[in-house]
Every structure is written in C-alpha cells, then in structure tokens.
Write a structure and sequence with these properties.
The protein has 24 helices and 25 strands. The protein is an alpha/beta fold and about 700 residues long. The protein has 4 domains: about 10-130, Response regulator (Rossmann fold, 3-Layer(aba) Sandwich), CATH 3.40.50; about 155-255, Beta-Lactamase; about 270-425, Alpha-Beta Plaits, CATH 3.30.70.270; about 440-689, Alpha-Beta Barrel (TIM Barrel), CATH 3.20.20.
Length: about 700
Amino acid sequence: MPLEKKTIRLLILEDSQNEAERLVNLFRNAGQATRVHRLSAADDLNEVLQHSWDLLICAPHSEHVASSEVIASIRRQAKDIPVIQLLADNDSDSITEALTLGAQDALPQSEDERLILVAKRELANLEQRRARRAAEVALREAEKRCQLLLESSVDAITYVHDGMHIYANRSYLELFAYEDAEELEGMPMIDLIASQDQSSFKEFLKSYHSGEGHAELKCTGVKASGETFTAQMSFSPATYDGEPCIQVVIRAETDNAELQEKLREISSQDLVTGLFNRSHFLELMDAAAERAVNSGQPSTLAYIRVDHYATLLAQIGLADIDILLTDLANLLRGHFSAETQLARFGDDVFAALIPAATPEAVQEDLEKLLKKVEGNLFDISCRTVQTTLTIGVAGLNETTAKAQEVVDRAHRCADELSNGNAIKLYDPAEELAAAASRGNIIAMIQQALDNNSFTLLFQPIISLRGDNYEHYEALLRLRSPQGEDIPPLELFKSAAEAGMAEKIDRWVILNSIKLLTEHRAKGHNTRLFIHVSASSLQDQTLLPWLSVALKAARLPSDSLVFQFSEPDAIAYLKAAKAMTQGLNELHCKTALTQFGCALNPFNTLKHLHIDFVKVDSSFSQDLSKPDNQEALKTLLASLHAQAKLTIVPFVETASVLATLWQAGVNYIQGHYLQGPSQTMDYDFSADDE
C-alpha cells in the first residue's frame, strides 16, 4: 500500500547498517521518498532531536543507546515524533512494555507489510495533529479578531444561553442604558422585554433551536430607565467560550427603517439596469460553487458582452448607452427564467447564473438569445440602435475549486471570439493550449509532444583512459512560448506528476536513435547516453517497443546506453533488475547515475547488470579538501573492483583534473570540457594526443 507522495524524515535506531538500509528500502518500495538518519550513539541524540522528524523506528536491541532512553528524551523535549518499536517476537508482555514506555505501536521485526501499514497510520495521525495545532492557532487568532469586532460593532449584540445573558457588547449596554456588563451577567433576557411581549418572547425562545438557523422577532425592549423602544431582533446559532448559544442582534426600529431596508436592497443592485451588481453576483457565484461541490448541483455561468461597446458609446453618448443597457437588461429578464440570477458585471458585460444546468444544456437557448438581440431594433432617444452579443460559457460542478476560476474561464472564452455575435463553451483541451501560453508547464509538455517541439542537446563524456567510442549524453530541453528555457528539474518533476514521463522518454529515444543514425552514417563511432525515468523503468512494454525501434533504424544496440538514477533503482529494484537484464539481452549498455548516496549503495548495484556508474555530483564538489578526495577515491576503487566504468559529472574547473586522473576515473563530463550543444561536434581526437 503506497504512502503519501511526500518525503518523510525518518529516524532509525539500529546498530546494523544493512538492516537500516533494508528498512529504508521498504519505504522506497512502497513509493515513499525518505530522508534518513541512523542513530548510532547516545552523544548525538540531543543534537539530532533539535531537527524536525516524522517517525522513529527502534530495533529490538541496540548496544549504543536504549530505545527507552530515546523515547524519554523525546518526551523531555516535548517533541511530537511517533515511535514504532520493533520486537524480536510477538510476546504480549514486550508489546505492553513498549506501549507503556511511550511507543505508538510495537510489532515483530519480521512483519514488513504490517510495518508499512502502521507507519502510514502514524504518519497520517501526525499530519492530523499538526493540522489540528495549526487550526487551533488560527482559531485563537480568529477568536481574538471576532472579539475585537464584537466590542467595536455599532450593532447591539448579546449571546444567550438557556435564556440568560453570557455576553453583551458595548452597543448592547448603551441600547439598554446599562453602565457595566456585570449588571447583565446572569440576568434573563426576558427581563429586558416589555411585559406585554414577554409571553410571545418566551414562546419564541422555546420553539427556536440553533439548528433552525436565522430567525427574527419584533418586540418592545425596556431600558434600565424604564423607557421602551421597538426592537428588531435577529437570532442565529453561535458558540461562546466553546459553548453552544444563541447570538441576538438588536436594532432599534426608527422612522427610517424602510429607508434602511431600501438602502440594503440598493447596495446589491446596479443603479442603471436594476440587475445585481458585480460584488453581489460574485457572492452568488461562491454560493453556487459551494452547492456544486457539496451537493452536486451544477450551474452554468454565461459571460455576456455587448459587442463594439466603445464604438456605440462614441456614437450615441453616455446617457443613451445607459438606456441601451437598461433595454438589454429588460430583454435578458424576459429571455431567462425567474430562477436565473442576472447581473451587470462590468461596463459592457452582463452575467447570468443559470441553476441546475450544464453548459451543453443551455447552449441552444443562448444561441436563441444571440439571434434575438441581433434582430432587435432598440429605440434610443428617437433613433434606432442595433447591437450584438458575445457569450462565453463555463460550468460549475463538483470539481469547481473557486468560483473566480469559472468567471475567468468564461471571460477567456468571450475574449477568443473577436468577431462578436457568437458563443463559445469552455473546452479543457483548448484551455491546455491557452495555458501553455500563460506558462503552464504541463500544457507546454503536451504541446511539445503533439508538435514535436522538444529540443535535444548533447554533452560529451570524455575518456581519461583512451576509448574507441565518442560518448555523448542526450539532454532534453523545452522552451516556453516566450522563448525562455524551462528548468530541467521543474520540467521532469511536472512531467512525472502529470503521468507524462513515459511519453517524454519514448520521444527522446526515438529522436536520439534518428539523430545518432545520421551522425554514425558520417563515419563517427558514437555512443549515446539516454535517461530513463522511474515510470519507464516500470513500463513492461518499453523493451519490446525498443527492440522494434532498433531493428527499424538498423542501429547497433551497443551504441545506446540507457541510464537511470540510484534513487529510482532503489525504489523500483525489481523493475530495474528486469530492465537491465532485458537491455543486456538486446545488447544495449546500461548506466546508473547519482550513485553513492544510499546507506549501502553497493547492495543495489549487486542486483543490476550495469556497465557504467556515474557518481553523484556531490562527490565532485570541493575536491580541494583531502577528506573529499579520499571519499571519491574509496568509492571509485570499490567500483573498479567490480569492473564498472566510472563517470564523474559536473567537472567545472581544470584544477580537479589531476585529482580525478589520480583517482582512476574512466570518464569525465562537465562545462569545463564542453556544455550541452545542439550538435555532436566535440573534437575527441584532441584528447587522444
């Protein structure tokens, strides 16, 4: 069962490096990237715990530090690190002891599948705890802000529990002419209601339940002085200090109450057309998006633009354009059903939110609207005006994340109809092309695959020991529509996440074979290194496909070297083993890159049929230090003992060449020698002289 695609920070208390590596491989084989530290001494415990960790796995026994000591240290430092204790057997007393010490679970060391399941559970629990703590912090901040808003609100607000005041803000105290909130604490709210209304108020409270939501009541309030006033009360469910209660907002009714109600109505309307205004319509859109996600109720947005608005404005003037917009608004009211919510969304834009309908279902009706407007003769100040509409349409459904995204989609559809008097529905496939022009990497990848617009660059790999072959590595590059290079790491990460890595690999293989065949036909004995992704490692159809491609090109199989990374090999070791065996049967060469960073890298190597090993770039950095030189020499010596041809990449300066020669490196690669180029034009003969 795969874990979440997230790098987990793993602590392992295990004396044996091989066993620690085995545990790490369990997680990698489950598809989980890990950052690992093996605890090997008590001295390093406090320093290690200063960092953030996601999980601790303790071996049954450790000679250096007891698991109880590690757990106690975690508790002392108040660290939230789940602990899994491995046991030599399934003894119930040992399990109880481990749980008593503070482990989240204890299980036999041999139950690997159970370990992954338990780890997944504990990591999920850890994420929930972290999310809860973050939410608690956010809640406290929100409560502080709400309290400040309550205190400063001009509305009289109180919280009532079982009919008793538990909080009242300053405006509430002033409304009822009380000086201090303590005067109201414990006082029944009914005491502030005139005697003739107390019976109806009491019945209202009895019948009101928090689940019923908003409710209103008009009654007579009594101030501390005995003066009465007409109060309009709004009731809604709330919580205060964690307890459920009722929030009551009271507004003293005045002679201009009708005017205030009219002002509230006007605040949501466009003054010219009488339709909803933009801000209120966006609130309606948010509510529709929520219904679509939570209840599966679809809606459709029609973004309706008046064509040639600037020309019309110049011809008939500002006053008459308002008359035209009003007539158009009336036409829209008559065309759409009463359930459709209409708005003036901009100077020249109307919007219609059509409930319980998909874009395809409303297309025919919107086309009728286009014809209706096109054929209509608008009488504006004793002159006839004609116009047309452009409509962009997008739907709200259960996948709608934000209402604004739907507005943007409909807007872009309308923008694409430059000639006007037309309708366009949002199409995800067309959106992909538009997304590419806006910088969306996945869209750019798909376009490059469709249009064969990737670029291959070639960087030479130079032998320090003499070689009959000219070696190059094929490097894939992609440019944005603006002509900027996409960073390779970002490109390949996006491709992997989108499930497009296999398609890219096959594009690279086919085009590399084509270019290599042409290059070798000119008399060059060239061999090409081609990268294979983790997705292609697991693709059982790749080898049969490759066999057909090689035969069709009549290219010697050993002129291709297929390389993949050590992390991918560890994560998919069985697939990597099968791949290298299959490539060997096809007489292709193989290479393992980024080598040397695993806990036991040679354990991986012994399972694979590998010809070339490219060490990790970290081994070629800062070779002026003796320790770094020694680490590289030791690694290379072990590889040469296994008859592996070694490559050191990222050679950037001449100063390291002598060190690499003395270390016995077979091949070097880097910008100091030559950077990636569109042609295979390196002069290998100069290195043989």
